[in-house]
Design a protein that fits this description.
single chain, alpha+beta, five-stranded mixed sheet, 29% strand, globular, binds hexanedioic acid, binds magnesium ion
Length: 258
């Protein structure tokens, strides 16, 4: 279903989800049947509230780009959300669990753009627009009770976007199509996968991001970060955890939880 529904109070839903995120307080699933356009309109309106408080858009995240993630959440279509500077966790830093509702982590690859990337592009065009690629951990946090939601619920909730940790940027010309990825929590491997799980090649996720962001009137530009999506299922976080991602040839990213 597409089109914005007149009966849906986009602003009220945006405020509700924004409050749930700000105050780390879970909210029930949305009772309103939203169209895809309604859901993205709620997301955009909730992000405007964050920008009005001084947060700066720094890029976008792609979600449900691997079979493992789709299976974990019972969906079969990609989603996307916005990233802000307030979501960035420095490599090696510590986050406070109290700032989140029920956070989880997933192993990803991140891209840094040196030029705009809009519309329908090829893999060589996407690579030419890159300044770097990096190992990245996404901290997702659904604002819905029990981490339960419909596809449109999660889109409205900025696709569970909550935090991200970036390792060092590496050469964007290297092949990233099939890199081994190990996500460890407290020194124990919890998820082992390959970057190939992300649409067969994470660059395909970047290409989808360019198309979807432009179609939404929020095109990718130089300096933007794009998170390609989880290569494996996500893992729940608990206080005291140390999380470390190692990506073959790319390096590591890590953080702790208090
Ligand atoms: O792959 C993703 O990042 C999807 C995030 C939204 C669903 C979830 O919270 O697991
Ligand atoms: Mg993700």
């Amino acid at each position: 279903m597409t089109g914005v529904t007149e009966m849906v109070d986009i602003a009220a839903l945006a405020t509700r989800l924004d409050d749930a995120q700000r105050f780390a307080r879970a909210t029930p699933q949305l009772a309103e049947p939203l169209t895809v356009d309604d859901a993205y309109a709620v997301q955009a309106a909730s992000m405007r509230l964050r920008y009005a408080r001084g947060e700066r858009r720094v890029g976008i995240k792609m979600g449900f780009t691997s079979r493992a993630k789709m299976a974990q959440m019972g969906v079969d279509e990609m989603i996307w959300g916005r990233l802000t500077d307030a979501m960035m966790v420095e490599d090696g830093d510590t986050i406070a669990i109290a700032d989140y509702v029920h956070p989880r982590v997933e192993p990803e690859i991140a891209f840094l753009l040196k030029a705009q990337l809009v519309g329908k592009v090829t893999i060589p065009q996407a690579v030419a627009a890159l300044a770097g690629v990096a190992p990245a951990i996404e901290i997702i946090d659904s604002r819905y009770q029990d981490f339960k939601f419909s596809w449109t619920d999660v889109v409205a909730d900025n696709s569970s976007s909550s935090g991200f940790v970036l390792g060092a940027w590496g050469d964007p010309a290297q092949s990233i199509a099939n890199l081994g990825m190990i996500l460890e929590i407290d020194g124990q491997p919890r998820q082992i996968g390959s970057s190939a799980a992300i649409l067969g090649n994470p660059l395909r996720s970047l290409i989808a991001a360019a198309r979807l962001a432009e179609a939404a009137g929020d095109p990718l530009k130089a300096g933007d970060i794009v998170m390609a999506g989880g290569a494996t299922a996500a893992e729940a976080l608990a206080p005291g955890n140390h999380v470390r991602l190692s990506v073959q040839n790319l390096g590591t990213a890590e953080f702790s939880v208090k």
